[in-house]
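Task card 7
Instruction: Convert sequence to structure tokens.
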Amino acid sequence: MLAFRTATAADIPLLRDLARRIWGTSYAEMLTPEQIEYMLAWMYSPEKIAAELADGVLWEIALLETEPVGYLAITFQGQAELNKLYLLPEHQGRGLGQSMIARALEVAAARGCGELRLRVNKQNSRALRAYERAGFRVSESLVSDIGGGFVMDDYVLVRAVTPPPV
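Output:
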């Protein structure tokens, strides 16, 4: 069973290490090594993570017993957007990703959000299946220029959030 704890600025090195370990394996068949390096530098610089933490982006570390095995990040700006949900490859396929999705939905519900949105690389069939199992549906297709000659070619997925019981 996973536990979650809120990340702080002291966790930035851990988050960066987890990202590097996960991305190198998880995106190897979808993105070039150059795009992976570009995106890691763009999304996971210490300054970027610190700014997100300061701006109220909720970063949580997923713990299996006491071992950090993944992380998620959610932005709340009128709605909830799951910006990141990553699990170490050696822990995938055991239902832990579904626990992380459930946690994101729980947090969104606790914040009073009516839906949870996220983006998934169109080639990431494993993630797409996991989100579809959790009740998400594709709402649009989106190609975004991220600089450096790279684009993100994603589906936007949404799911209604059930309010917590009163």
